[in-house]
Amino acid sequence: MSTHSIWSHYRADKAYDEMIDAGGKPRETCANLSQYLQSLGTEAIKGRLSAAEAAILEMGITFTVYSEKGNIDRAWPFDIIPRLIDFQEWMSIEAGLKQRLKALNCFINDVYNEQAIIKDGLVPADLIESSGNFRPECIGIQPKYGAWANICGSDLVRAGDGVVYVLEDNLRVPSGVSYMIENRVITKRIFPELLHNLNIMPVDDYPAQLFEMLTSLAADPVSQPQIAVLTPGIYNSAYFEHAFLAQQMGATLVEGGDLLVKNDDCVYMRTIKGLEKVDVIYRRIDDLFLDPEVFNSDSILGVKGLIRAWKAGNVALANAPGAGVADDKVVYAYVPAMIRYYLNEEPILPNVPTYLCSDPEQCAYVLEHLEELVVKPANESGGYGMLVGPHATGKEIKQFHKLIKKNPRNYIAQPTLALSTCPTLCNDKLEPRHIDLRPFILQGENGFVTAGGLTRVALKAGSLVVNSSQGGGSKDTWIINREQ
Questions:
Q1: Which first-to-last residue range defines the signal peptide (predicted)?
Q2: Can you tell me whether residue 281 is helix, strand or coil?
Q3: Of 408, 396, 333, whose CA–CA distance to 370 is shortest?
């Protein structure tokens, strides 16, 4: 097979393609990459792919898939063709992400305190009260800097019009940042000459930025607070990430049984030297399992008394319990209004148009157009429990009709977007596959956004589902500054 044949059958679908324009020519930002890929023969491409697969195995990069047959650890699915974004466009996206998280944190703090946005009629009270992630136990708390969601992973998509939209915000325990970093490590191994010749913004500063943000949350202004990463354990699907980030930050990876809350309402870590006070906990456990004294009394994953210690101001929790109230996909529809209300600014990044099934008129429209829409449950993640109307069977349409009628509050609907595509290596040739992007945003004393993020790719032809748990993979994301 010749070098040319790798590209010869590549045709961008009707969707916007990140590398090739409508005329079939490389976009300006991608010109050097396109030219380089064309210079490689098939055997060279195969060699780079084999090198990437070997690196993934050597580095132990895995994720866990839950199934009826048990938990399966799989090697991380990685496509070697990167996704490129121009630096100037990225600067606007970064500003929009910071703006969005700032408004979301204002909203969460308001919900658990003054509830001004509810009193002023912008957000219905019953929307909050019926949210599966609203925690009455958190009322009256005001975390440091008013930051409840310290780590956010917002999912971005580019539609056929070329516009970047926010698809959803992940504010509870967003995952995937370790894979973003490891993707770059692999790319450096297989394309060292490319990264040397192009001005690509780094992503390996994230652990340092995360550590700095977590340090800023400590109640006492100590120079080296004790930071712990609280994990559910080795069987969690994101355990690789928990261990990776703890190691990269120099923090301690702990499970619930490693921590103890004493009568002084402080959290201590059991060590071979005795008990050591913990100042900040980066928790990767869902709210309801954090503290059996307050939430699920049967939980063996959390720490008894942890919420008491948090309320006393003796330990910082990131993300704060209750932050998930803004993770609700129904609440998502109100984010543009939040930005105007709290910040007195116009949103930089638009939402995807969203129909609320809790509104009778909007619900009627959704029920009549299920075949055209994407329907999502309010609090599911990972692409589960959703309906992609154009790809659904008649039986699935009828099922969702019943589900929405039974519990309209639990569903939203959105137009089926033609997600942008990116060249992806499929059986020795490049084919377009749909992608999204999850950048990671930090907020403590200061804000920070990763230079790019985790580009997720639907490896199945025509599929819009990019989640790794459902057959998706990922790509390295390059922010290219062509002016330097």
A1: none
A2: strand
A3: 396
Axis-axis angle for helices 206-216, 177-190 (nearest 10): 150
pLDDT(66) > 50: no
Distance CA(245)–CA(450), nearest Å, equals 15
User: Distance between CA atoms of 223 and 225, rounded to whole angstroms?
Assistant: 6
Q: For residue 446, what are the contacts with CB-CB under 8 A and spacing of at least 6?
A: 212, 213, 216
**Which distant-in-sequence residues (6+ apart) come within 8 Å of 377 by Cβ?**
329, 385, 386, 410, 411
In the numeric block, which tokens belong to residue 255?
A: 């499970």
Give which of 176, 154, 175 is closest to 327, Cα–Cα: 154
Q: C-alpha 270: how far from its chain's center?
A: 32
Rounded to whole angstroms, what are the CA distances from 289 to 260, 265, 283, 300? 15, 19, 11, 8
The verdict on pTM exceeding 0.85 is yes
Binned at pLDDT 50, 70 and 90, residue 2 comes out as very low
Rounded CA separation 459/416 (Å): 18
CA separation (Å) from 15 to 157, 159, 170, 431, 462?
A: 12, 7, 26, 13, 11
Question: Tens digit of pLDDT for each residue in 112-161?
Answer: 999 999 999 999 999 999 998 999 999 999 999 999 999 999 999 999 88
C-alpha 171/C-alpha 326 separation (Å) is: 7
Is the pLDDT score of 89 beyond 90?
yes
The per-residue pLDDT of the chain, averaged, comes to: 90
370: left (phi over 0), alpha (psi -120 to 50) or beta: alpha
DSSP state of 390: G
Amino acid at 104: L
HSE (side-chain half, CA atoms, 13 Å) at 117 = 28
**C-alpha torsion sign, points 23, 27, 32, 36:** negative
How far, in Å, are 61, 82, 175, 359 from residue 454 at the CA level? 15, 11, 10, 34
Residue pointed to by tokens 């210690």: 309
pLDDT at 396 over 80: yes
Write the DSSP string, 43-83: HHHHHHHHHHHHHHHHHT-EEEEEETTEEEEEE--EEEEEE
Phi/psi for 171 (5° steps) reads -120, 0
What domains, with CATH codes, occur in the chain?
220-314 (3.40.50.11290), 355-415 (3.30.1490.270)
Q: Which residues contact 365 (CB under 8 A, 6 or more apart)?
A: 355
Q: Quick check: helix, strand or coil at residue 414? A: strand
Record the tokens describing residue 140, joined without a space: 């009256």
